[in-house]
Specification:
uroporphyrinogen-III synthase activity; lyase; UROS/Hem4; 4pyrrol_synth_uPrphyn_synth; Rossmann fold; 11 strands; alpha/beta
């Protein structure tokens, strides 16, 4: 029996990829490659930074948003509290010397569930995000009583060419709904295609809406969660 081939939608040298490769070493060969790119929108991240400067909180929902915010010399002033969705996002912020006051689970719903109510009316949260991000976080925080300033920071676009490893894979491990869309637009599932495992329910819903059968989604948005979801489809060797 040979090892299965898992294609992960993260760069091959990404810490997430390296950890998943370690966890799956007796079950699969894990190869990573990006299928999308993040393109800053006009005036960003300067516009987001100006909004953050007068906010009470900034909530960062993805590593991509965190990297763009941290590309500035002084991204977040002292006194502005920082919330992050997922450990991967928090890690980017911490690696740039920022304190993270709240780390929620791996979805916008988790952030809303963990977020405190405002201490008085008029408290502001700035939400720098992808132009394609859902309204889950701003809607949820508004219902809690916060004044939410969403700033569209970047757009996520498919790469012009999808790496060949995805067509060759036994299982595709998708780390974002945008990655599922990019692979679908490239025709990966025009025929039977590889099995699809998604990082969580949001990306699973994207696959469902596109008519792509996702065999599983990770119970947590971590390498360990992905390894657990992949294990039934990658036998031990």
């Amino acid at each position: 029996m040979t090892l299965s081939l898992v294609a992960l939608t993260r760069p091959d040298t990404d810490m997430f990829t390296l950890r998943l490769r370690e966890l799956m070493s007796r079950r699969a060969i894990v190869r990573g490659a990006a299928v999308t790119e993040q393109v800053p929108l006009d005036g960003q991240p300067a516009g987001a930074l100006a909004a953050i400067a007068t906010a009470d909180w900034v909530c960062v929902t993805s590593p991509s948003a965190a990297r763009l915010i941290c590309s500035a010399t002084s991204p977040i002033p002292d006194g502005v509290r920082v919330g992050a969705v997922g450990e991967a996002t928090a890690r980017v912020l911490r690696d740039h010397g920022l304190r993270v006051d709240l780390v929620a689970g791996g979805s916008g719903r988790d952030l809303v569930a963990a977020f405190p109510p405002p201490t008085r009316p008029g408290r502001r949260v700035v939400l720098p995000a992808s132009r394609r991000a859902s309204s889950t976080v701003p809607d949820g925080l508004t219902q809690l009583g916060w004044s939410v300033d969403r700033v569209d920071l970047y757009d996520t676009r498919p790469l012009p060419r999808i790496p060949e490893v995805f067509a060759a894979a036994d299982v595709v491990a998708a780390t974002a709904g945008s990655a599922v869309r990019a692979l679908a637009e490239a025709g990966l599932w025009h025929r039977e295609g590889p099995r699809l495992v998604t990082i969580g329910r949001p990306s699973w819903r994207v696959a469902r809406d596109l008519g792509i059968p996702s065999v599983a989604h990770a119970p947590t948005p971590t390498p360990e969660g992905f390894a657990a979801a992949l294990a039934p489809f990658c036998p031990l060797v």
